[in-house]
């Protein structure tokens, strides 16, 4: 057999593969089955080889784990020794316990006696210690109360009372101590109530009052109130965050208020643990909320929670009224006003009062919410069965107090006692506003009622209810229900119009109340309903009557259309010309209603309807006044200028002329509040354009008015009427501009977001139809003003026809016997009329309008005088001189009026100077210098010259006319 080499030792750290017994069993089976020795030897050698490998592996493993095995053996030895020692100790203890048990059993009676004596001595020492503690309680209690450590004081007092009424109840020497402790308990209860009330109504509002004192009374101006601006109505923004969080709350349970998440609530374990008091704090009242929680805990320990809750409910309205009284007195002191001089005070103090009161009421509500939370926790901890008041109860008292405040400042009691001012009932619907401005019959004398029901069961029950609502401290009603005379401390005089100053801040506060108590949109709070009833049933009715009376007195009097504004009022309005007093009165009523729209935005649409109604009625009144001037009572008489203006073609022609469009461009626009520049409207006219336009207008007027003449009853001969028409025009234009400006500033409700828009003045969005109706009325006033101005423009020209056309018909012959060097009487009368009209218009109309009226008169007069040649039978040199004097007189009059030379009248004078010439000389001048007049005017001149000759030659005149036609045809120019 060949020797088998031993297996190489594997490298250290290499893990050998796991070997099973399968190889050994395979070798044994092979040896058993082998037939030859050689085969057995080979298998044996293989087996020895494997055994050596296994032995080598075992040696390696032993060498690797030798140290661990040594440590294990050592630890096993130590543990075995400790177990043996412990068994020996336990055996010794058992033996000692058996010995002690035997000894105690032998001396049991002696030990029991000693134990009983020790208990008796311990109890005696405890009683002595309690007596010493009880005797020291009054001094300790006084020390705690002096430092306002009420929780420690209450706990000390309660424990002392338990001792005195418990184990020490039979000690006669402690009777006085027990009595003293009972007295101190009652005083402590009263003091806790006083402290809690003070923190609810005084300490909680201290910050507000301090801020008011710092912000008011400086430099003698106590009226710096944020309520002066509509955008600064949230006066409680300065309150602490904790108090602000308490304002938003709802009551979910009749007993326990559910406070908002903003309140500093603790966990259930902390609530059950109770309130802790820090005796090391420098100021126990620094945290008012925690201090009130301590007071509530003290009351719970004294078992006084139900009594205190009921007392707080009873005193709530009294304390709120006291806040108003203190605030009123503080404002009066800061404003340095005497307490009884109501007339010396103004309504801004009322705004300051309301702002301060609202801020304080918010703080009081926050304090009540905190106290209710503390009451609920204390009731749970101490298992007290009590029904707490709720936050809606607090807000209800706040509303009742504010209702009393409004009753005083709005003078509701006196209004209710006035049968002429007060409505029949607050529940009656508001009547149609048109009845206040329609023409009414004289009112009938009201009858005095025969019976009164002041002492009926219904009236007595109502009076009792009012007394209960007003509280025991506000005894405004006696037993019969009649108001008692009591001295009221007010910051301003009672006046129904005070509502205009306080409505917006009051409604903001009412919204806060309704949000706090969870009112739905369809169910307003009682204060909101009270305010709405007052405005609808009292304020609006009074204001309607006042406006109607003011407008009626301004428009229905005898001198209503002659009374004008005084200079002081003109300066105040920034006017250069006076207006009708009635217009200013109506405009002031409109401005007053506009201010009411800002002050009472909830009723803005109602006031806008009143404004439209006023404007509608005043428009009819003004149109009637206009018709009274231009439409005489007699049907067979008519004013030519007004009748002619009704012709649409003539009216359209006059309004199409540049002088009218230029006048309209110079108006003060209601959007920009500045005159439009000419380049924004029309182009500048040249002198030639002005001449052509004036000649064109003169031609149109001469064509329509030159035939038949104008009689005296067809003109406005009274200059006072013309002045009244001018004042009406100026007033209507100013009034329409004011209304258009107002209408343009009104926000309009869109279809997508109705009622959301608000103007810069605080007026809410108005319906589109109402705004359009307002603008339509303003345009109608503007149209009336334009009509008046056009009538004045035409009337001056119509009067020129009236005085100049009959002139030619009256004297017919300007020949012989004309020795007077004076102008014709009709010319002098026209000059006087023009001067009078100019004086009247100059004091009534603006210069631009006066310019529109008198501009172009020279061309018209020249046209009238030139066309009058056809009516003259004969004329000689003196007649020509007479006509030239007439023209010069009129030219001088117009120059004084227009402050410019009227060249058109020079043209008329040159026309009459033609009559000095023979027809041949006239024709020669036309050929040399060109035509200066129209062919018709030359024809009238030739015919008058021919008629003025001793023996008219009609054949020659036909020749002259034929030559004139040929010359003008050759020249190709017509004038």
TrEMBL record:
The chain positions of domain Exocyst complex component Sec8 middle helical bundle read 284-458
Identify the domain of life: Eukaryota
InterPro entries in UniProt = Sec8/EXOC4, Sec8_exocyst_N, Sec8_M
Give the residues annotated as coiled coil: 37-64
For whether the record's keyword set contains Coiled coil, the answer is yes
- Any Pfam family: Sec8_N
Keyword hit for Protein transport? yes
Region (Disordered) residue ranges read 1-21, 668-691
Which GO BP terms apply?
chemical synaptic transmission; Golgi to plasma membrane transport; protein targeting to membrane; protein transport; vesicle docking involved in exocytosis; vesicle tethering involved in exocytosis
Record's keyword terms, sorted: Coiled coil, Exocytosis, Protein transport, Transport
Gene Ontology CC annotations of this record: exocyst; growth cone membrane; synapse
Domain Exocyst complex component Sec8 N-terminal: residue ranges: 45-141
Give the protein's biological function: Component of the exocyst complex involved in the docking of exocytic vesicles with fusion sites on the plasma membrane.
Can you tell me which family this protein belongs to? Belongs to the SEC8 family.
- Its name, as the record gives it, is Exocyst complex component Sec8
- Organism for this UniProt entry: Cryptotermes secundus
Organism classification: Eukaryota, Metazoa, Ecdysozoa, Arthropoda, Hexapoda
Gene name of the record: Sec8
């Amino acid at each position: 057999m060949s020797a088998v080499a031993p297996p190489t030792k594997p490298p250290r750290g290499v893990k050998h593969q796991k070997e099973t017994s399968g190889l050994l069993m395979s070798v044994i089976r092979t040896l058993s089955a082998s037939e030859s020795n050689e085969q057995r030897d080979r298998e044996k050698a293989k087996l020895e080889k494997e055994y050596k490998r296994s032995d080598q592996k075992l040696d390696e493993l032993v060498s690797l784990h030798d140290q661990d095995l040594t440590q294990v053996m050592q630890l096993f030895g130590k543990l075995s020794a400790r177990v043996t020692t412990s068994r020996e100790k336990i055996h010794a203890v058992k033996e000692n316990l058996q010995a002690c048990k035997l000894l105690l059993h032998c001396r049991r009676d002696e030990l029991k006696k000693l134990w009983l004596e020790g208990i008796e001595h311990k109890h005696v020492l405890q009683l002595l210690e309690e007596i010493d503690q009880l005797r020291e309680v009054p001094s300790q209690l006084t020390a705690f109360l002096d430092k306002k450590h009420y929780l420690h004081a209450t706990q000390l007092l309660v424990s002392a009372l338990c001792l005195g009424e418990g184990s020490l109840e039979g000690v006669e020497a402690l009777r006085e101590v027990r009595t003293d402790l009972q007295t101190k308990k009652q005083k402590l209860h009263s003091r806790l109530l006083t402290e809690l009330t003070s923190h609810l109504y005084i300490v909680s509002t201290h910050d507000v009052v301090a801020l008011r004192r710092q912000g008011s009374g400086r430099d003698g101006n106590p009226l710096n109130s944020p309520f002066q601006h509509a955008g600064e109505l949230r006066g409680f923004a300065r309150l602490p965050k904790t108090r602000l969080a308490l304002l938003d709350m709802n009551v979910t349970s009749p007993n326990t208020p559910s406070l908002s998440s903003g309140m500093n609530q603790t966990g259930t374990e902390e609530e059950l643990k109770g309130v802790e008091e820090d005796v090391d704090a420098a100021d126990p009242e620094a945290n008012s909320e925690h201090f009130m929680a301590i007071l509530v805990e003290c009351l719970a320990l004294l078992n006084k929670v139900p009594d205190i809750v009921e007392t707080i409910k009873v005193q709530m309205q009294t304390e709120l009224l006291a806040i108003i009284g203190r605030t009123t007195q503080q404002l009066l002191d800061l404003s340095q006003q005497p307490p009884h001089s109501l007339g010396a005070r103004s309504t801004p103090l009322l705004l300051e009062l309301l702002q301060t009161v609202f801020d304080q009421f918010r703080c009081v509500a926050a304090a009540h919410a905190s106290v209710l939370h503390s009451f609920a926790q204390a009731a749970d901890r101490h298992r007290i069965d009590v029904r707490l008041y709720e936050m809606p109860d607090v807000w209800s008292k706040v509303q009742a107090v504010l209702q009393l405040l409004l009753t005083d400042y709005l003078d509701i009691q006196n209004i209710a006692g006035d049968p002429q001012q007060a409505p029949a009932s607050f529940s009656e619907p508001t009547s149609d506003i048109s009845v206040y401005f329609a023409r009414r019959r004289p009112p009938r004398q009201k009858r005095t009622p025969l019976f009164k029901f002041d002492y009926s069961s219904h009236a007595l029950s109502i009076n009792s209810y009012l007394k209960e609502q007003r509280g025991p401290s506000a005894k405004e009603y006696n037993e019969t229900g009649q108001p008692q005379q009591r001295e009221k401390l007010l910051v301003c005089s009672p006046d129904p119009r005070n509502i205009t100053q306080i409505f917006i801040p009051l409604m903001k506060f009412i919204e806060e109340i309704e949000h706090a108590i969870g009112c739905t949109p369809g169910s307003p709070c009682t204060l909101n309903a009270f305010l709405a009833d007052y405005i609808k049933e009292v304020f609006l009715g009074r204001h309607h009557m006042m406006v109607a009376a003011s407008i009626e007195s301004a428009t229905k009097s005898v001198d209503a259309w002659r009374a004008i504004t005084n200079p002081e009022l003109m300066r105040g309005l920034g006017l250069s010309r006076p207006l009708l007093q009635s217009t200013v009165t109506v405009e002031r009523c409109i401005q007053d209603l506009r201010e009411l729209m800002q002050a009472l935005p909830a009723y803005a649409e109602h006031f806008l309807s009143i404004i439209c109604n006023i404007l509608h009625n005043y428009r009819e009144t003004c149109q009637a006044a206009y018709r009274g001037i231009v439409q005489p009572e007699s049907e067979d008489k008519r004013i030519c200028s007004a009748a002619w203006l009704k012709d649409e073609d003539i009216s359209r022609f006059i309004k199409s002329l540049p002088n009218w469009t230029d006048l309209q461009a110079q108006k003060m626009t209601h959007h920009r509040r500045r005159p439009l520049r000419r380049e924004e409207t029309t182009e500048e006219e040249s002198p030639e354009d002005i001449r052509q336009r004036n000649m064109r207008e003169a031609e149109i007027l001469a064509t329509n008015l030159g035939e038949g003449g104008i009689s005296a009853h067809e003109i406005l001969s009274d200059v006072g009427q013309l002045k009244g028409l001018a004042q009406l025009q100026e007033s209507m234009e100013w009034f329409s501009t004011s209304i258009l400006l107002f209408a343009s500033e009104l926000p309009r409700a869109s279809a997508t977001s109705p009622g959301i828009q608000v103007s810069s003045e605080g007026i809410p969005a108005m319906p589109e139809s109402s705004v359009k109706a307002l603008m339509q009325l303003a345009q109608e006033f503007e149209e009336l003003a334009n009509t008046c101005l056009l009538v004045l423009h035409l009337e001056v020209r119509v009067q020129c026809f009236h005085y100049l056309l009959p002139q030619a018909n009256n004297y017919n012959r300007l020949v012989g016997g004309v020795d007077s060097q004076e102008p014709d009487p009709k010319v002098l009368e026209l000059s006087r009329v023009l001067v009078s009209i100019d004086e009247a218009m100059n004091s009534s109309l603006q210069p631009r309008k006066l310019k529109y009226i008198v501009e172009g008169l020279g061309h018209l007069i020249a046209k009238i005088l030139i066309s009058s040649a056809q009516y003259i039978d004969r004329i000689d040199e003196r007649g020509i001189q007479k006509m030239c004097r007439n023209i010069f007189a009129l030219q001088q009059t117009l120059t004084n009026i227009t402050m410019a030379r009227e060249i058109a009248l020079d043209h008329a004078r040159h026309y009459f100077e033609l009559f000095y010439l023979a027809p041949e000389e006239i024709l020669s001048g036309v050929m040399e210098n060109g035509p200066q007049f129209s062919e018709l005017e030359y024809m009238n001149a030739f015919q008058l010259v021919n008629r003025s000759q001793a023996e008219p030659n009609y054949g020659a005149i036909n020749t002259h006319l034929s030559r004139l036609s040929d010359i003008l045809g050759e020249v190709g120019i017509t004038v």
